[in-house]
Each structure stands twice: as C-alpha cells, then as structure tokens.
Amino acid sequence: MNTEPQSVDIPHKPSPHWIWYWAPVVLYAGLIFYLSSQSYPEQFVPNFLLKLGDKALHAMEYGLLGFLCYRAFRHAAGTWCEQHAVLLAVVAATVYGATDEWHQAFVPFRDSDRWDLATDLLGACVGVAVWAWIDTKRAESADMRGAH
C-alpha cells in the first residue's frame, strides 16, 4: 500500500486582479464601437495619424486590441487560456473586428470593407506577436536572475 500523500492538481484560478487586465479590453472595445458609430470618425483622430491612411490606422487599432486581449488571456483567464493566449487574443480581436465591420454597414456614410477586416487581423497578429515576444523575454530574464 502506498502511504505517500497524493498530489492534487488544482486548476489555476484567474488572478484576483482580473479587472486590471480585462477593464482595458472592455474600455478599448467600447471606444472602437463608439468611433465606429460616428458617421465621420476622422474628426476624433489627430491629423498626424490621419496621414498614415485608413489601413495603417486599422492595423494599429487592432494591434492594440490584440495586445490587450493577449495580456488579459495570459494573466487573468485561467490556465487553459494562459496556454492558448496567442490564439485566443488573435481570434477575439479579429471576431471583434468582424462585428465592427458589420456594425459600420448600418452607420450613415460608413461602409463595411473586407480589406479593413483583413488589416484588423494583420494588426492583431502583429500586436499579439510583439507582446508575446516581450512576455517571453521577460520570463527568460526572470529565470536568469533566479538562476544566479
């Protein structure tokens, strides 16, 4: 008979500071929705950003959303989400981009554009990849400090 205590695999619970990670996602998604509801959203965008062009703005907008989603999935959504944060963040940002394009089809003087959605996907991929790389480098640096 085995008398050693059995280890129990306790699932990782989300961070108690989940609001620190998820509030920016919700607030930023709300800002995107608000701007998409405007017939002339360019009036809310600084001129120097307008010079970059529509597609660059979409890429930056969804790069930031992807980064925020990655951060939330990675640090405040449980073990499974932490392990799949890259995929979940890209999918979440892209699905939100698709719903945003659909929403714009109903806003006067706006239209839905599949190339905007493609740019949203690209931006989300870049934003998530950059932050995942930074996260990896931070972890490696912390491991090296702990090894000494």
List the helices and strands and how they pair.
Layout: H1 18-36, H2 47-50, H3 54-76, H4 79-83, H5 85-104, H6 114-147
Instruction: Write down the overall geometry.
Output: elongated
Question: Which regions have little confidence, pLDDT < 50, spanning 5+ residues?
Answer: none
Strand content: under 5%
- DSSP, total strands: 0
**Rg estimate, integer Å:** 19 Å
Euclidean distance between termini CA atoms: 41 Å
> Given the helix and strand composition, which structural class is it?
mainly alpha
Can you give the mean pLDDT? 88
Query: Approximately how much helix is present in the residues?
Result: over 70%
Name its key features.
0% strand; mainly alpha; single chain; elongated
Structure description:
This protein has helices spanning 18-36, 47-50, 54-76, 79-83, 85-104, 114-147. With 148 residues, the chain is an all-alpha fold. It has a domain at 50-147. Helix 1 (18-36) runs parallel beside helix 5 (85-104) and helix 3 crosses helix 5. 26% of the residues are buried.
How would you summarize this macromolecular structure in one to three sentences?
This protein is mostly helical.
